[in-house]
Amino acid sequence: MPLGNRVKEFRAAKNLNQQQLGSLVGASRQTISLIERGDYNPSITLALKIASVFQKTVDEVFYLTEEE
Amino acid sequence: MKKKVGLKFALSMIGCALFGALCSIVANFTQPSLTDIIKNLSDILIENSTILMLIGVIPIIVGSVLLSKAKSTIKANVDLDEAEFEKTHKTLSLGLAIPSIIMPWIFMCLGFSLICTIRYQKATVFIDLLILILETTWITIIQYQTVEQTKKIFPEKRGNVLDRKFQKEWYSSCDEAEKQIVGEACYKSYKTMNMVYPVLFAVMIFVCTIYNLSPFIFLMLGVLWLIQILSYLIPSYKLEHGKKSRR
Fold it and tell me: B153–A46: do the CB atoms touch at under 8 Å?
């Protein structure tokens, strides 16, 4: 089941660019871009770090989608 | 399901055996012409090693153009927006990959050149060696500059191309997604090579029946295949069961 996310939306709300978010969570800009596009499923550690930057829970940022 | 897979495997084995038998029959009937084809092809490769080596300049030029394109974009504004970032990153990746794939080609051509020099007492190997030095230097400059430009858009990246520890440092500065990409690409490479080696052996066995081949070709292929298998199995065993296992 693919993983959906609202990283781009929350990042925009926090007024952060991909580079800044990447620096905050210890990931590259490319990785943030891959996550936002749904091309990479982050590890639990990275998902927790991202959710923590947005002051949200992991399941508010990441969710399972039905369709393949 | 198991039966179906087993049947598929058995059928593919029978198919391969039939193909092998067909190749032997064809080789037997066309032996003189096939020998001529291989001999002519060898002569063409040996006698034109310098031209073949110079063909290697084309991808290097393509790499240089891509690098300068990326360089000018980064120079204009290092804080690229998302679309520009993707485009520049792609350009840099291609700029690094295209000249790199020419390295085996250059060394292969040097081998042809060496055979030409030994066989025909020509001095081509010296000219080709000079071309090899120029091309590898040019490739190294492209690689160095591409890595430096990549560092500008990925400030967390570490390593110097000229340093022997470059691969290790670069890999350790990669994050989890980048390491996963490296891992998946390596696995695909392993899978591809595990298919390529048996095919190469089959081709060489076929060629061996019509052409006088050196046993070193089989030895070399066997050693390369063995290195491929061991370099995959040993680290994967260590990672799963060794002291540095990733638990």
Answer: no
